Amino acid sequence: xxxxxxxxxxxxxxxxRSAVHLEMRDVYGVDNEGKAFADWQARHALNPxxxxxxxxxxxxxxxxxxSSGVVVRRARIVSEPASGYxxxxxxxxxxxxxxxxxxxxxxxxxxxxxxxxxxxxxLFDEQVVPFDIFDGDGRWVHTDQTDDPAVATLCAPAFEVx
Length: 162
What we know:
Elements: H1 5-14, E1 18-23, H2 34-41, H3 58-67, E2 71-78, H4 84-98, E3 102-107, E4 120-124, E5 129-134, E6 140-146, H5 149-161
Parallel strand pairs: 1-2, 2-3
Antiparallel strand pairs: 1-4, 4-5, 5-6
């Protein structure tokens, strides 16, 4: 089942305890970040004191969730040396942290012995799992969502070991 940003926002707003996100790609061709990535490549950095210039509406949504008591965590498995895109993500991570998100990074070489799902995913309240499906160039294709307890049981500990 495909999922729009509105559907995602609704999922996060209905979450009461936790939302975790596991990212495993080194490059994302996400359309809404294209300009920000190009600006970063041209040496433009986000200004820590200019919150209005940060990624909106995403950070507003995260802050809304964390302010209501939802613990939002993200883990990124990354190759070394890091790709330009991962360095770009790292440079802006302070904005996610300021919104209340907890972010951790794991070098890919340390993940070889971990059993992980094949796609990036979110897990909401350990029940709903939207898998983000990307093409080979890192462009988002669609989201496959499930509330199958067996899938949630697979994804929850996978996130924790990362």
